[in-house]
Amino acid sequence: MAGFEGFEKRLELHFIGHDPTTLQLGLRKLDFHCIQQTLQAVQCSVVSALGNSFFDAYVLSESSLFVYPTKIIIKTCGTTQLLKSITPLIFYAHTHLGLTLSSCRYTRGNFIFPTAQPFPHTSFNDEVTYLETTLPTTLCFRKASIMPSKSSSLAWHVFTATSHLHHHPYAYTLEICMTDLDPTLAAKFFRRPADGKSGHSAGKEMTAATGIGEINEHALVCDFAFDPCGYSMNGMDSEWYSTIHVTPEEGYSYASFECVGHVSGDDVDVDIVHVLRKVVQIFRPGTMSVSTTSLGNNEVWREVAGAVEPMGLKLRSCAVDQFPECGSVVFQTFTPIRRKSAH
Ligand SMILES: C[S@+](CC[C@H](N)C(=O)[O-])C[C@H]1O[C@@H](n2cnc3c(N)ncnc32)[C@H](O)[C@@H]1O
Hints:
S-adenosylmethionine decarboxylase; 17 strands; 36% strand; lyase; pyruvate; schiff base; zymogen
């Protein structure tokens, strides 16, 4: 591979069950061995873990895993085979906990090095065929879509399948992908050679030095700095997670930010304008895409351009798509108003 593939694949699985005692902790009760076996199929491993009363968050060698009682979110980058986690997860959830898969959402951007991806990630067609044949037929509301932008190198791939309507009417997920990071800012995600620090202590320093710690000062943060470079963090704020991953190498630099939130009435629980501006300030990307998934009728995406444009980025495209029983996705892309000077 010419460089590290930063663009993540993201899988969200929801389960249902009938035993209320099992449902209290649900998937969080799975043995660590089951998680390790699943991650082995994907070809990544756990580097750090943290839990609160709502969910468990794992930093992986390639991105992150979040385990809630009835929901799992796995996000992996590089040449991992994320979709290979589906069969073991369905099996463990059913045999160990009596839980049944009720919905699946798979999303990703455009790979920087598509030819380096192994099956089933060789193309979106292959991924969709794999999903169609691996998922139980009870997940009968299905749709696959490639949401375009003005640039052929920026598209958002979405597959959803569900067996029933979900009741999270005001929840949303924000997935931000950034490339061509400002080199001076990206340099902060490199370690000094032989710094004698652990990945955890170097990660903590990066969280403070880059301003990542100021995105949500209430969050419990689990951070990790790779050697010689690269950074991952998970934030936990009651039931809401956030996550950042950085590949700082010049030529294929990439960073992602993701968070979930909810809207009640006119109130958004996360100050989305503050979050977006902080993210732009920390990375100063040459391209930025923002995908907002809303399971109900909320309009968080409308605030995105208003937050980002005063920071010197211009909205270049906006695509909207609806997914049967799985809400809507808005895909917005931005590039700087002024071209960056050559470094
Ligand atoms: C796992 S992290 C962050 C992942 C995230 N999806 C991204 O690319 O932004 C990837 C960065 O860490 C670096 N890295 C160093 N050691 C690594 C390791 N053992 N596994 C994965 N990445 C490693 C990679 O070169 C890359 O810069």
